[in-house]
Amino acid sequence: MSYISIIIPAYNEENKIKDTLESIKDIKEIDEIIVVDDGSSDKTSEVAKSVKSDKINVITQSQNRGKGYALNNGLKEAMKKADIIGFLDGDLGNTASEVEKLITPIINNECDVTIAKFPPAKKKGGLGFVKNLAKESVKEMTGVELTSTLSGQRIFKKEVLEIFDEIPFGYGVEVGMTIDILKNNFKIEEVLVNMTHSETGRDLKGFIHRGKQFYHIKKVVRQKKKEWR
């Protein structure tokens, strides 16, 4: 039997983290849920700790260090026991239960990594530049075409994560990891899920966020081209 750990990096998610945890805590395949509160200024840690389950372990960072740092912090704990490790966002709410669809292909040894493929966004976001950059960069470097390269909802066999000294930092984390995983000849399968989470709109904040994503992806792709030439 596999031991499965789920890592949830969370920053100011007091309104969603309880529903996220409640929806996955009774999934029998999941043995451990590690919440890493990334220096939240709200009550994310307190709310997470209030959810009754022996599976839940809440790690509270004193300051906001970013998603990559939080994932690495959670991995230090997960790698001690787990054979299969998953990443989920804290704002999935009740739809986090869809993680079962990501776990099954791994348990059945159909692939090494699963990535959640979300349904189309309900509100208009960006103009597609970031998604296209991510998709085309992965295809250019690996020959594999994936449509959900930016999705952070992923399940891994432990041996996949062992190729990384640490999870990359910044908004290019998913693209950088995907390139390395495929270059190391691991198999990735995209799985359609009915998950929803906070969407970035077409306001100033949204465009600033996507601008940062675009810059970080460009940066990580340049780095990967040097590493894999």
From TrEMBL:
It comes from Intestinibacter bartlettii. The keyword Glycosyltransferase applies. Gene3D superfamilies: Spore Coat Polysaccharide Biosynthesis Protein SpsA, Chain A. Residues 5-132 form the Glycosyltransferase 2-like domain. Pfam families: Glycos_transf_2. Keywords: Glycosyltransferase, Transferase. It is an enzyme of class 2 (transferase). This is Glycosyltransferase family 2 protein. Its EC number is 2.4.1.54. One of its GO terms (molecular function) is undecaprenyl-phosphate mannosyltransferase activity.
